[in-house]
Design a protein that fits this description.
It contains 13 helices and twelve strands. It is an alpha/beta fold.
């Protein structure tokens, strides 16, 4: 059994607004194991990014959010740590790759200096050693002529190269967990495949846990071991990749999978779509949060909130009618 390195237990994140506190994440619980790739999927506004940023407490600086629950990293609750203690974990033990490298990288520093900065802050090494490690990291993530690229600025690199630099910065200190938030969104299909192959390779080489946040189910099917499906701040289904794709139980998961374009689609055939949109935080429906968009919803679904229940050894679902739907296939 792989080592469990991160435990998220009943995480709730509320944002401070003029109308009071708005709950963006409501009772999310999951684990991350060493060496695995965990996919987190769902539409925009479902809470995927807020979950990952809450784990690293990225809203602390501007005092924007109120957290509850526990996030235990190697047994230590991160919500109990001081700001100074959290700074030692961010970038060193838990790293994050954001979706837009151009806005994440500093435009006035060379890419080499930005990798060196992470190393010198967290590993307390000399400038010479940091430079050698930075060049090595650029080579590790597949950047040709790493010594030459070391002196270039972000605007001098292509989108794929910048994303590789972001990954090099995130991996410089050999973290235990890498959080990748839509790491291929702004890239073309060929470069997307290269970046995902790189992440899978780094996951295997460094034996770290990877949380891959994405809306691309095809990427999840190819790269991940387990999947969390999120909707409106909650996990609605969880399981192994083969379980989720072969036997989805929640209607939202079924809708997401049905929306994937198929190679054998007929000319003029319309893609499946889930009707409606994710509600705003101030208008969370009573009962099941997906009920207003669900074709199967009944009276119970609209009045009583379902719990996330275990249906077999590896799969959980938050749906009143899951068992009946599973029997129907």
């Amino acid at each position: 059994m792989a080592e469990r390195i991160l435990e998220v237990d009943n995480l709730c994140t509320q944002f401070k607004t003029e109308r009071g506190l708005l709950k963006a994440i409501d009772g999310v619980s999951f684990e991350v194991y060493r060496g695995e790739m965990l996919g987190i999927v769902g539409e925009s506004g479902c809470g995927k990014s807020v979950t990952s940023q809450s784990i690293l407490r990225l809203y602390d600086e501007k005092n924007l959010a109120v957290y509850s629950g526990q996030v235990r990293f190697e047994g230590q609750n991160l919500f109990d740590l001081s700001q100074k203690e959290m700074q030692k974990i961010r970038g060193a033990r838990i790293s994050m790759v954001f979706q837009d490298a151009l806005s994440s990288l500093n435009p006035v520093f060379t890419v080499g200096n930005q990798i060196m900065e992470a190393l010198m802050i967290h590993q307390n090494i000399s400038k010479k050693d940091a430079r050698e490690k930075a060049v090595k990291m650029l080579g590790m993530v597949g950047i040709p002529d790493p010594e030459g690229r070391f002196f270039q600025y972000p605007f001098e690199l292509s989108g794929g190269m910048r994303q590789r630099v972001m990954i090099a910065v995130a991996l410089a200190c050999r973290p235990d967990i890498l959080i990748a938030d839509e790491p291929t969104t702004a890239l073309d299909v060929t470069i997307q495949a290269q970046i995902m192959d790189l992440m899978v390779e780094m996951n295997r080489k460094l034996d770290m846990g990877v949380m891959l946040i994405t809306h691309d189910l095809a990427v999840v099917a190819e790269t991940c071991h387990r999947v969390l499906v999120m909707y409106l701040g909650q996990i609605v289904e969880e399981g192994l990749v083969e379980d989720i794709f072969d036997r989805p139980l929640h209607p939202y998961t079924k809708g997401l999978i049905a929306s994937i374009p198929k190679l054998d689609s007929q000319k003029g055939e319309k893609l499946h779509q889930i009707k409606g949109t994710v509600p705003v935080l101030g208008k969370v429906p009573e009962g099941c949060r997906f009920a207003p968009r669900c074709p199967y919803a009944g009276a119970e679904c609209r009045t009583k909130a379902p719990e996330l229940k275990k249906v077999n050894e590896s799969q959980k679902v938050r749906c009143h009618l899951a068992d009946r739907r599973a029997d129907r296939g």
